[in-house]
Amino acid sequence: MHVLLVEDDAVLADGLTRTLQGHGMQVELAGDGLQADLQLQRNPPQVAVLDIGLPGIDGFEVVRRLRARGDTTPVLLLTARDAVEDRVRGLETGADDYLVKPFATPELVARIRALGRRNAPKTGVLTLGNLVFDSGARRARIGDRPLELSAREWAVLEYLLQQAGRVVSKQQIIDTIAPWGEDLTLNAVEVYVSRLRLKLEGAGLALRTIRGFGYLLEAAPAA
Amino acid sequence: MSGIPSIRLRLLKWLVGPILIVNLGAAALTYLLAWTPAQLAFDEGLRQDAAALAARVRSGGAGAMGTVAPDNGAGEASWAALHDGAGRLLAGAPQLAAPPRTGLLDARLDGEPVRVAVAEAGGGMRVSLARTTRARQGVQAAIVRSLVLLEVLFSLALVGLVWFSVGNGLSPLARLRARLDARGSADLAPLIDAGMPRELLPVVGAFNALLGRIDAGARAQDEFRANVAHQLRTPLAGLRLQLEWLAARHADDPETCRSLELMLGANERMIRQTNQLLSLERAEPNRFARARLAPLDLSDLVAESIQAFVEQAASRDIDLGFELAPAQVEGDRFLLRDLVDNLVDNALRYTPRGGRVTVGCAALAGGGSVLRIEDNGPGIPPHLRDQVFERFVRLDEGTHGSGLGLAIVRDIASLHGAELTLLDAEGGGAVFTVAFP
């Protein structure tokens, strides 16, 4: 995934670059707002990660110009101030998400991934652990072993993979896989997840239950 | 009261004292006005009786002296005597001395004061008629009694009126005090001077100027604190990422890893302290007044923070669960998130590894909503429960906490009119509940 990172603090910019690269992203760095504005036009990224407090023009202004051009590139704002006005203003200006510094790294990565998928074609191949999940071809395998899934299991796993690293609620799963008001109970979701858990054994994945709320799918820590 | 000058006492002293003195003078005058005519009337009666006796002596000789009754029938004793020009007693009561002149004079007879009228009876002879003054004394006593009674009543009434008037005159001061008393401890808004009497306006003005300076100082302090905290966040975020990257790179070197873990832990604590300083600032009552209140659902608020909770719980191997039902409250979204974050953080921090924490919220049957955080940690002994909500109090010196978390929770709960309680969980542990109206 191609990410444009706009951050003027050298230590944070460097750390973010390495971290995002470590998660397989291609990171392009801009140190101020005007440079960011140029790079957004010249080489549009899949996701822009923008600090609000920038030299030159600030993050709000960069987003405003971006949206004024009709550009829908997803934007994640980073802010050191968590004043109410900043948060609200950021989203009103057209940013898609915001994160207050200092953030937890898994949350940052998960949010960037979620934003990246928003504009990505639905046919992408998702990989996590040993699982390779090809939504275009509707084929999945664990290592070399093909994975057989029912339609509902497929939908649940696809959503969990898209949200990998983030806690998702059972209600969110229902809203995603049965958006047309089909009758799907919380218990049914539990059944699908427990079947998935069995089928994903050996995939190097951890599918954790968050008691009373939902699930969290992530790569199992190397033991 | 002693040593502190009182306007009321001063006014009373300067009003009541002179009034009493004037009153006393008026009473003395009234006494004279009432007593003198009575005295004159008594004297006139006595003089006429003496003249009549003298007339009888003049026509009938000394024998007429025998006609004087020792008692005039009005409770007064009388004596009469006739002396010649040389002062010799010719007839009558020997107790009466020879009169030095005609007219009226005072004397004592048989140990009692008497009034004596002396009249010329012809041939140098003088008739003395002495009469006790019992009736006069009676009248005098009656006058004095009435005057004293009246004066006491008048004086009391006047003092009462003065007291009331002084109180009435001072009532703007009392209203000003009541207005000041009714303010919240952090309300630094200027006093409104509408309706204040002219004499108080300079005082209110000076007071408002002082409030303004205090408010400006407090604001500058708040802003300084907020700025420092914000300035710290970016380097702390950078430091965290760099340390994480190093830790991943040296995962196979236990000694380096251990050192990096310690650094990451210290970094986390700095981040936490910084965030808490900021939320403490947000929970300042005078900021809250400006904050926007909106209808919110507690279950949404908890869900927003869930990612961070889950990661923190996982790192300590704690079974974190939720029992979330729709629970509407009216509140400031950011403050309430701070409240939820701090309560959950507190529970995760003080529950031992492998423990269990459950976060719940629900609407109450009788209106209002409740947030509930239960853990199966060591619990908090009853005698320490009031202390835990104080700033910088940590019950367990072994854990790294700022001692601010629960104080922030308490401040935010009270800003929202919510009731914060701490109880024992079934089977040990603590239950914090926040009941919103």
UniProtKB/TrEMBL annotation, chain A:
Keywords: DNA-binding, Phosphoprotein, Transcription, Transcription regulation. PROSITE patterns: OMPR_PHOB (PS51755), RESPONSE_REGULATORY (PS50110). Pfam families: Response_reg (PF00072), Trans_reg_C (PF00486). Residues 2-116 form the Response regulatory domain. Residues 123-219 bind DNA. It comes from the Bacteria. Coiled coil: none annotated. Residues 123-219 form the OmpR/PhoB-type domain. CDD domains: REC_OmpR_PmrA-like (cd17624), trans_reg_C (cd00383). The modification 4-aspartylphosphate is found at residue 51. This is Response regulator transcription factor. It comes from Massilia suwonensis.
